[in-house]
């Protein structure tokens, strides 16, 4: 059984029955390496499940139903992270903190931040609470699913804790607001080291540091300098530097250029670039999974909560399902990861009647779930 830090991307192999969107690799990444143990009485792992808002409960139900049909040895525990405002700071309940820390892993649906209640982003609160310093976002074309490009295979690793997302801002005088972009050597070293090791572990040749140090000379300059100072420790990985505007243009003109590379970015650039890559690969965030890396690993669908279709049985559960596949690979449960992944991809590529409306199809959440279960083997 492979013991790995995070599930890793690989090329499609063989026929549809052999497709693997996210596969593990026998790497040596220590941070994020799953150390949880199953319940000795049941043999099952306990995993907190943050169902989320909007369509979250519906797509979460789909995941639970498919996992039950696949007989995955996981016992879900409902994890309520309803935000609390304590002394002006947004926090999550201690019960939820304890659940996730004890399990060292969690699965999360989409969350919406309450508007006009003084809360900051709940997603940001989670990253801060659990020290989730890196977000790993693969974006890969799916055969037989029409998109703008074919053969896209992009990976972005995003610094997850600071940059513009630090939330440091104030009004200097009425009508003049200052927002502070925070870049520290400590956080930069953490995510860049992880990116080097990740790149090495999946056998790619290049690590591209995406930046705007021509303008943000001190902030982005520190991020770039940190990467340059660490490069000697990874002689098998070619370090490249690229301005964010050039990266965006190059991805749109020729995404295949990055097939042998991993990109690592400060927070805001990573957020924008990873969404762009999802659009290039599949045309939909509804197919995009991700992993947030720390001592605990939080897997999540990256799309929004879609309140406009909540409760209508229209939501696409694929992003959350593929995130759960990444989670299973990380846990060493690769047999189940392969089974569910193949069933999901088979369903999507079987025709429009099996795809939800966001993919131009006519399937409901319920009928899509049923089709995936029928394709389990």
From TrEMBL:
Record-level GO BP terms: isocitrate metabolic process; tricarboxylic acid cycle
Catalytic activity line of the entry: D-threo-isocitrate + NAD(+) = 2-oxoglutarate + CO2 + NADH
InterPro entries the record matches: IsoCit/isopropylmalate_DH_CS, Isocitrate_DH_NAD, IsoPropMal-DH-like_dom
A GO CC annotation given for this chain: mitochondrion
Coiled coil, from the record: none
Heme is among the record's keywords: no
PROSITE patterns: IDH_IMDH
Recorded GO MF terms: isocitrate dehydrogenase (NAD+) activity; magnesium ion binding; NAD binding
E.C. no: 1.1.1.41
Domain (Isopropylmalate dehydrogenase-like): residue spans on this chain: 46-372
Cofactor: Mn(2+); Mg(2+)
Keywords tagged on the record: Magnesium, Metal-binding, NAD, Oxidoreductase, Transit peptide
Subunit structure: Octamer of two non-identical subunits IDH1 and IDH2.
Family stated for the protein in its record: Belongs to the isocitrate and isopropylmalate dehydrogenases family.
NCBIfam families associated with the record: mito_nad_idh (TIGR00175)
Official protein name in the record: isocitrate dehydrogenase (NAD(+))
